[in-house]
Amino acid sequence: MRNLSITGNRINSAFFQEDVLDVAPKLIGKYLCRAFDDGSIIKKRITEIEIYRGEEDLACHASKGKTARNEIMYKNGGVLYIYLIYGMHWMLNFVTGDANNPQAILLRGIDGIVGPGRTAKKLKIDKSFNGEDLGKSKRIWIEKNDLKAEYTTDVRIGIDYAGDYWKNKAWRLVLK
DNA sequence: GTAAGGATTGGC
DNA sequence: CCAATCCTTACT
């Protein structure tokens, strides 16, 4: 059935409701699916992500506590956190962990596309996706599979303001 | 109210 | 190298 990929073969919210350090290695390499109004679907592997972990992480948007912008990160894992940066680029993040434990994984690349802004643009992401439930959404979800993905790690990009300790965390994962 | 700056990108 | 572009945040 054509509908199977939309309703049956997706990763559920529980997958995201663990510590972001455990979720990220399982997320890299998975197939991200995006269904458009015209019936077309983009299905590509997640190739690059970054970890943002809690209020103590000075690079995380939650480092100064809950605000109107970041409140989505305080929800249970499995929803999207979307925000605009530099007045022009939408960023897509997967919220992880339990409620009141703000964590997220920034999507930086999918097959053939490098860069968080470019990736979100390709997927036609905007503010309306903020809070989108990956367990239920008809327009975006992640496909199940048990393949182990190999990846390399490196420091996160664009967070020099976070101080030496946090800026040097190898919390960027790149699919081999 | 006001001002500073950003999890980036593309063009010169 | 640097401007674009506007939302969010932290102040006065």
Most strands sheet: 9 strands, antiparallel
Radius of gyration: 15 Å
What top-tier CATH class fits best?
Alpha Beta
Write down the overall geometry.
globular
Structure description:
It is a single chain. This protein is α+β, with helices and mostly antiparallel strands. The chain has one domain: 3-methyladenine DNA Glycosylase, Chain A (Roll), CATH 3.10.300.10. Helices cover 14% and strands 30% of the residues. The chain is built from four helices and nine strands. The protein has helices at 4-7, 20-27, 116-122, 163-167, and strands spanning 31-35, 41-53, 80-85, 89-96, 103-110, 113-114, 140-142, 151-154, 172-175. Strands 1, 2, 3, 4, 5, 6, 7, 8 and 9 form a nine-stranded antiparallel β-sheet that branches. Strand 1 (31-35) and strand 2 form a beta hairpin. The chain starts with a helix and ends with a strand. It binds a DNA duplex (12 and 12 nucleotides) through strand 3, strand 4, strand 5 and helix 3.
Please describe the topology of this protein.
Elements: H1 4-7, H2 20-27, E1 31-35, E2 41-53, E3 80-85, E4 89-96, E5 103-110, E6 113-114, H3 116-122, E7 140-142, E8 151-154, H4 163-167, E9 172-175
Antiparallel strand pairs: 1-2, 1-7, 2-5, 2-9, 3-4, 4-5, 5-6, 8-9
The protein binds a DNA duplex (12 and 12 nucleotides) through residues 50, 52, 59-61, 64, 67-69, 83-89, 91, 93, 104, 106, 108, 115-118, 156-159, 161-162.
